[in-house]
């Protein structure tokens, strides 16, 4: 038979083969196996039947004491025969791979029944040797000897094969009452069995200890033996009550090899089973009975498995999983292992039935075929060397980079550099954001400070809380008066323009605006000074008015001079470069004190003028005076003709709004005052043309000395009439002064507001710029306009409510802006304005009284008060604007009690009170529109009154002149 040809043979046949092949019985098996293991082309499957031997021990002392008979006879090395002491039956023979008789040594049993299999583990084949037999049949006795011999031979083999490296590891377990225990680590408790797709059943957490040498191995074996469950039974003083599996894993590899590296790895399982027993024979009870039950059950499973396996592949299901023993030994039972079973038996006639069972098991076992194969790890030595070199090179690179690795390192460094750069950029961004946030906080703090100054002007300053965006393109400044129809423009374009104006020109425009304001103030001061001087002279020379009046005028002159001084002080404003925007803004903010001071001065002037007017009013009054006062025909100022006024924002809160006919009584929430009304339609004849006067060196009209009442006192002219005319003219002039001062105050306040808006928007745009996004036109996709409009309108309505905005203004805005795309700019501006107001009011509300002082808190309460007055005013108009039927219907609808005082006011007080209810808002707007009359004619309401002024302020602002009193005398 060719050594490379394998077929299933039994032990007897194999022995014949060995004799033929090798000729010497001592080593033929190992030679065959070694030849098989190193067969080129990879590991070969070694189909081999389990080596089954039978060992019969001598009669034990107890058996001898019982005069038991020897019932079995080994007639040759392979056959055992049941002796028939009574000759009642014919003798039966049992043939096995080897039969060891009463006097056979364990050494021989090992040599002939286990050694070859056991040493297979040294050449990469799994091997299992186990003893099977009834209790006290000598299993432990035999396995102990087998193990000792195997250990001895293994180490002898290692010594005989110095060309190979061997690594031995040991693990040991017992299965006691169907529980797996680690004999090298008993404290670990019961161990679980796991199914591994490659390794089969494995014991989880089983300790595997490295073996140092033979002595160490024997020590470990002794530990396992000591740890094993042993108990006394009737048949055995030291009966093993568990199955023990001692596992030795051997890995070996050639120390040197040309080309390929071969490693073997295999396990040798030395299994000492617990013995089958009969309770009747062992007299077991309690624990022993339970142990015996488990033992018998697992052995029964083993028997079943063996029987199944012995029947070949057609035997069907093999119940390995029915016991832990068979699960653990699965690979050894018909699997990848060489297996040798030593069946131990008692020769005693008293145990003949147990022995028969053992022999029956053995007979079945010897029919079981295993499929052992060499577990070989093959590695190409060249590849290994290459890998070793590569590892060495990498290690060297790690220690000190070499040119050969420079490319890789360079790439890594570049990548790191990029990362560092990216991180630096991110850090810069973060720092910039931090600085921006700090700046914003600082600006907001300053803004709040400035706003306190703004609020000092009281309710009238609220008039100025309107938005103005000076445009850089004069062509864009289409006059609302000249081309109202052409006003609707592309909303997006205007937004863009608005934003661009903020980013590009607003700072300089703002400074420019302030400078012009100051010029105006100076001009006002000059003109007012001259006019008041004249007035003073007139009063003095004609002895009109009281002494208090003269004093008031003197004070007024003083105030105006003071105002001039303040104005001059702020002359140093320089238009900055827009590139240095923040610096410019800060500089503008630094002017806050100046503007605040100006406002204060203006306030003082206002008070002086008020006194003056009241002084005149309380002085001699004539019907003519009253008539003229009511007609307001001849005013020294004609606001509509004042070019400066075009630059003042036209909005519902501007006194110069085209809606003045409707809105003249409210400046934001300002209650109408008759004396404030300056009908834009009224024009005043040019004084210099109407009156013979002289001009001073500046070209201003001055009264003719001949034309004064004083010079004509002795003439036939009615002096009293002249005096009345003078008084009237003076009164009108003073009123005009007041109006102009009011306008200036508003203008200052608007500039303050503009500045704050500017700061906010600059910050906002800087933030946008920080994200590298275009900052001119917001390209963010938005929702449809009609939805956006509804949202914004709801927000606006709520903000109106929160800010106590004039309900007339609310009504106008609500009626005018119905969702036309062109309304977008107005909506946005209104929303922004109101948002600012609301935030400002909230800040005031959150501030402590100590910080607030008196004035800022007053701005909120003043708005509420003004709104209350507005409602009172509207209530008065109910009767004249609505029919009795309409009124009654409204009373019913708005649930005004049928009896009670001030029912009209009750009705009006219910209007615009529920910002959440758009139906309420709609109906409120309709009623207020009727009350103020702007629903009667389209001319009364125009979007232009909400116009944003994009016009560049005129560089040359002309004050239309101070109408000298003498001019009014028409003398
Ligand atoms: N071949 C033998 N020669 C001499 N004495 C033996 C032999 N076999 C076993 N004995 C003795 O028989 C007794 C029982 O043996 P052992 O404990 O090995 O049986 P066992 O099968 O392991 O029993 P159990 O299954 O109960 O553990 C021991 O005292 C042992 O020394």
Per-chain topology:
Blueprint: H1 11-21, H2 28-37, E1 45-49, E2 51-56, H3 61-65, E3 72-74, E4 79-82, E5 93-95, E6 98-100, H4 106-113, H5 115-118, E7 127-133, H6 139-160, E8 164-176, E9 179-182, E10 190-191, E11 193-196, E12 200-203, E13 209-211, H7 214-227, E14 230-231, E15 239-240, E16 243-254, E17 260-272, H8 279-282, H9 286-310, H10 324-328, E18 338-345, H11 352-365, E19 369-373, E20 376-380, H12 381-399, H13 406-455, H14 459-462, H15 491-542, H16 547-569, H17 581-590, H18 592-618, H19 623-631, H20 660-663, H21 687-690, E21 694-695, E22 701-702, H22 719-770, H23 785-803, H24 807-816, H25 824-846, H26 849-852, H27 855-881, H28 884-893, H29 903-910, H30 918-932, H31 965-968
Parallel strand pairs: 2-6, 2-18, 7-17, 7-18
Antiparallel strand pairs: 1-19, 3-4, 4-5, 8-9, 8-13, 8-16, 9-10, 11-12, 14-15, 16-17, 17-20, 21-22
The structure holds adenosine-5'-triphosphate.
Helix content: 40-55%
Q: Strand count, sense and closure of the main sheet?
A: 11 strands, mixed
Uncertain spans: 1-42, 452-507, 566-581, 619-717, 768-779, 846-858, 936-940, 947-971
Strand segment count:
22
Estimate what percentage of residues fall within beta strands. 5-15%
The number of helical runs is: 31
Instruction: Give Rg in angstroms.
Output: 59 Å
| Distinct ligands, ions and cofactors found in the model | adenosine-5'-triphosphate
Mean pLDDT comes to: 67
The shape, in one word, is elongated
User: End-to-end span in angstroms?
Assistant: 156 Å
Helix and strand content put the structural class at alpha+beta
Provide the domain count: 3
